[in-house]
């Protein structure tokens, strides 16, 4: 992720003048157009477009923006699935349902507005997954489990997922995919005269486009949003 951000920022920065830097520091849209492959509408039915949204800052309203940006970048009206990964918590600390609820409500709204087909979760234990399932209007269709922390699926989680028709998936993402310090460091290295310590990442979305019939990845990439807290 760090390498992707650095390469994009460096290439983008080299293409604009220093004067433009100063004018656009409040809002920077850093894209490398040739690096994003839009989906041909004629091929849309043959492809599955999925995303995993990593929340860095605590702002549930950013979910709609992330989905809209992903749809715009890929040239689609709808994502087939979105999995939300809440911010990491300290070991031994349990994430409360109240924390997840505003994020899930945003996802539910996007399902109802036909921007997303299915929504899922990441790293929820049986207790929290059950609480979310009972509370939610749109039920989670999947839950990702990190096999780095458990080599075998917990039996209680497996039984509950089977009972409620929730697909259990595995992943090997680190607990914190991109921390604030790492983002600021790569920003400082990539763009001259930027006040990196003023920029805070809000979310990171990883998308993948899969050919359904063959199960191969056609394209994948990252979209990130950061906010400038100028003093």
Automatic annotation (TrEMBL):
Origin organism lineage: Eukaryota, Metazoa, Chordata, Craniata, Vertebrata
GO molecular function, one term: glutamate-cysteine ligase catalytic subunit binding
Pathway: Sulfur metabolism; glutathione biosynthesis; glutathione from L-cysteine and L-glutamate: step 1/2
Residue span(s) of domain NADP-dependent oxidoreductase: 31-169
GO process terms (BP): glutathione biosynthetic process; response to oxidative stress
Chain's gene name: Gclm
Protein name (Swiss-Prot/TrEMBL): Glutamate--cysteine ligase regulatory subunit
Domain of life per record: Eukaryota
Keyword Transmembrane (UniProt): no
Keywords noted in UniProt: Acetylation, Glutathione biosynthesis, Ligase
Assembly description: Heterodimer of a catalytic heavy chain and a regulatory light chain.
Family affiliation: Belongs to the aldo/keto reductase family. Glutamate--cysteine ligase light chain subfamily.
Signal peptide: none
CC terms in the record's Gene Ontology section: glutamate-cysteine ligase complex
Keyword Acetylation among UniProt keywords: yes
């Amino acid at each position: 992720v760090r390498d992707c951000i650095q390469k994009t920022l460096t290439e983008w920065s080299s293409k604009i003048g220093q004067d433009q830097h100063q004018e656009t520091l409040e809002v920077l849209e850093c894209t490398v157009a040739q690096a994003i492959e839009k989906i041909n509408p004629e091929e849309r039915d043959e492809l599955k477009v999925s995303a995993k949204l990593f929340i860095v800052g605590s702002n549930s309203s950013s979910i709609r923006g992330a989905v809209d940006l992903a749809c715009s970048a890929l040239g689609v009206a709808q994502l087939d699935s979105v999995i939300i990964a809440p911010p990491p918590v300290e070991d031994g600390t349990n994430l409360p349902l109240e924390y997840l609820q505003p994020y899930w409500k945003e996802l539910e709204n996007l399902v109802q507005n036909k921007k997303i087909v299915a929504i899922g979760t990441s790293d929820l234990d049986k207790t929290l997954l059950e609480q979310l399932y009972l509370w939610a209007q749109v039920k989670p269709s999947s839950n990702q489990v990190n096999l780095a922390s458990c080599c075998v699926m917990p039996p209680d989680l497996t039984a509950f997922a089977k009972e409620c028709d929730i697909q259990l998936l595995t992943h090997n993402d680190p607990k914190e995919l991109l921390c604030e310090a790492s983002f600021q460091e790569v920003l400082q290295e990539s763009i001259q005269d930027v006040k990196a310590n003023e920029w805070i990442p809000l979310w990171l979305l990883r998308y993948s486009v899969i050919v359904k019939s063959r199960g191969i990845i056609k394209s994948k990439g990252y979209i990130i949003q950061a906010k400038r807290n100028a003093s």
